[in-house]
Amino acid sequence: DQPTDSVTCEVVTYTASPLPSKKHYDADTTEPITCGLESMEDLLSWTRSKANPFSVAVVPLAPREPPLDRCLRRTLVSHDMMGGYLDDRFVQGTNAEAPYAFYHWQYIDIFNYFSHHLVTIPPAVWTNAAHKHGVITQFRTFITEWINGAAMCEDFLKDEESYRRVADKLVQISHCFGFDGWLINIENKLSEVAVRNVPLFLRYLTDQMHERVSGSLVLWYDSVLDNGELKWQNELNQSNRVFFDACDGLFTNYNWKEENLVEMKNLALQDRQADIYVGVDVFARGEVVGGMFETNKALEIIRRHNFSVAIFAPGWVYETHEDKSEFRKNQDKFWALLSNYLYIHRLASPLPFVSSFCQGFGNAVYWQGQHETNSSWFNLTAQEIQPLYYHQTLGGLGWLRSSGCPKDAWNGSCSLLLDGLIPASHTTPVCAKIFSIHVPLPSSTLVSLIYKASPEIAVSLELKTTDASQCTHVDVQEIQLNSVSPEVLDDEHQLVNKFTQLCGNLNHNGWTMRCSQLELHCCTLREVCVKIERIGQPEDRPFSCRVGELMVLDVASLQVPPDRIHGVCIDDVVWLRGAGTSLLNATLRWDYPGNLVRHFKVYWRQLRGPHPSIPPGQLVLVGRSYSNLFRVTELRVPEPPGLLELVVEPVIKMGFPVPESHWGRRSLSYTKDSSK
Question: Where is the Cytosolic endo-beta-N-acetylglucosaminidase TIM barrel domain (predicted)?
């Protein structure tokens, strides 16, 4: 707690890092990182005070339609890539040139981050991205293997006190870091005493998770039998059912045949068929059905028997293809092949509903159509709400594709590219659905669309709504949708004038902005479509429309929030020696309502002291933060003595500039160590 308007004073010493827990920070740069727990001692000695605050998820779980308990055939993705904790371990992102990312969230219900550490604590970037899209559960893995794993199990499963102590720690870790469940994976033999206590451990862990973490799940991996033998069954049967009955579900092994699914359907499951997640290894290791670009063959069989599916290691599309520049193409192909067996979930969002389609990685960062930085980067927390990606035919030679494109963007790293060919025989506008959502609308709504279109096509919006009272219907397929084509407002319209004034001096740089107003009563927005119409003669017409941003806003809320950043503090300062300069590393903290912002921009400026390239007082961008916490790393500052200021600008979701008087700032005075 540092007094408002005070100056933080530092004596520059180039000593060993004084950070509270070095394993939470990169040894060379002090960049915050996430890591797992390796031993039972690490787990049992864990306390909240030891937790890395940077690794705590900051995005709450968004609701979806339908909720998980009404999904009768669910989809789980288990992300296992090269041991885990790769580029994603850097909490604030990194400058990876060709990272792996996932952005087909609308297809899945559950995301599991898998590694072979005893306790896998998720990189917060994954939890944030999943929660933003309403992916109901973000599992973490508790795994024991081989001889060491067997010894651990014999110790913690020896009695009630021991297994409860382990379960309590797992619950505390989940609650602290903001994720929603556990995959329990014991892949070693168990003694008679230990295996007898496993169902009791699972039941206690499941009950405690349900009590402390709303919507949480605990799953058991198909490995150990009720007699303690390690023998994968590839199904639920009487030899492993005792574990299934004690928790929220079973993740089966991958070497199943269709007869295994038939036998499971004959079990008395008491409406729990959706709790069986049939494993599919995308790498196709062993005797499996499908895999790789034929994974759809496995899903076809699984869905035919009405089971949930667990897709293991879909990062195959990245790992096994040397040309990483083809990653987006390969990922889109893989999920398109599965799309007939997956179910699109609607994100239930309040207003404002905003997306610039950023996928959380790219070769540049844009802000309102202008380059902000020109370097490779990766940070899944920066991922915005993702649209629908697909490829469809339009009859004859016609086609339509929806894909992410990093070549230009309005905000973030990429835009939504709608391209294709309108065949001469196609006389009606092409309607590209980009969102399936559940957004209650106020009586007066402003819709803003920013796009760049190829010549000789007209672009407009089609919105599909329904009466809000219908949205409580159990069978969402029976909801009747009404099409609304909002009329574009003239640039001189009072509402457009107010909106553009709030947006500030925009340089559109070739982008077109169109605003529409909806006057509806008790309606819910269910679909957003972009209509593309050929201008001129009926002929085969190639087209492209790059969508930069969609905003759906409550007219009554068109104002800059009055909130100011306050409570700015600087701590955990580390000084490193650079080439003829000092490198400042420090943690910056502040208070501001997180629900208002897209991100924060962190700047610094020199107030006193020589710096050959930066004029005194000029703000220099340090980076973006997606929480009220930011680690400044390797910032080149003038040699001591000096005085600098760190400044935090809130960037609100609607994009309206916030007055500088509402920004946060803290001065840092630093001097030489006179004892040296």
Answer: 85-364
- The number of beta carbons lying within 10 Å of the beta carbon of residue 88 is 27
Cα–Cα distances (Å) from 602 to 69, 117, 436, 575, in that order, read: 41, 34, 34, 19
Distance in angstroms (rounded) separating the CA atoms of residues 258 and 287: 13
Q: Whole-model pTM?
A: 0.94
d(CA 185, CA 119): 10
Task: Convert the pLDDT of each residue in 57-90 to its tens digit.
Answer: 999 999 998 899 899 999 999 999 988 899 999 9
Residues with Cβ within 8 Å of 542's Cβ and at least 6 positions away in sequence, in order, are 419, 420, 421, 454
**Cβ(424)–Cβ(452) below 8 Å:** no
Q: Which of 54, 92, 1 is nearest to 569 (CA)?
A: 1
Decide if pLDDT at 234 tops 90.
yes
> How does pLDDT run across 324-346, given as a tens digit for each residue?
999 999 999 999 999 999 999 99
Note the maximum CA span of the chain.
Answer: 84
Helix, strand or coil, per DSSP, at residue 500: helix
Classify 335 as helix, strand or coil: helix
The 10 Å Cβ neighbour count of residue 255 is 16
Of 568, 572, 571, the residue nearest 592 (C-alpha): 568
pLDDT tens-digit series, residues 145-170? 778 889 999 999 999 999 999 999 99
Span 6-17, average pLDDT: 81
Say if strands 398-405 and 415-422 run parallel, antiparallel, or are unpaired: antiparallel
Question: Are the C-beta atoms of 242 and 220 separated by less than 8 Å?
Answer: no
CA angle 562, 565, 567 (to 5 degrees): 140
Distances (CA, A) of 647 to 396, 440, 604: 57, 36, 6
User: Which token pair is 393?
Assistant: 């035919």
Using CB atoms within 10 Å of the CB of residue 607, give its burial: 0 to 12 exposed, 13 to 18 middle, 19+ buried. Answer: middle
CA 167/CA 210 separation, integer angstroms: 13
Give the Å distances, CA to CA, from 614 to 420, 540, 624, 638, 664. Answer: 47, 55, 20, 10, 21
Q: What is the DSSP string of 587-622?
A: EEEEE--GGGEEEEEEEEEEEES--TTS-TT--EEE
Handedness of CA 276, 277, 280, 281 (dihedral sign): negative
Average pLDDT over residues 657-665: 96
- Omega within 30 of 0 (cis) for the link into 352: yes
Give yes or no for residue 609 having a pLDDT over 80. Answer: no
Q: Are 606 and 614 in contact (CB under 8 A)?
A: yes
* Secondary structure element (H or E) that encloses residue 129, with its range: helix 124-132
Q: Cα 127 to chain center, whole Å?
A: 6
Residue positions counted in the chain:
676
Q: What gap in Å lies between CA 107 and CA 342, rounded to an integer?
A: 6
Q: Give the pLDDT score at 2.
A: 56
How many Cα atoms are found within 13 Å in the side-chain-facing hemisphere of 342? 24
DSSP state of 130: H
Q: In one letter, which amino acid is 597? A: V
User: What are the b/e assignments for 328-366, b being 16+ CB within 10 Å?
Assistant: bebbbebbbbbbebbbebbbbbebbbbbbbbbbbbebbb
Answer whether the bond into residue 314 is a cis peptide, omega within 30°: no
Contact 310, 74 (CB under 8 A): no
Segment 477-491 mean pLDDT: 87
pLDDT > 90 in the chain, percent? 80
Residue 368 DSSP code: T
CA angle at 324 for the pair 103 and 543, rounded to the nearest 5°: 65
Cβ atoms of 516 and 485 closer than 8 Å: no
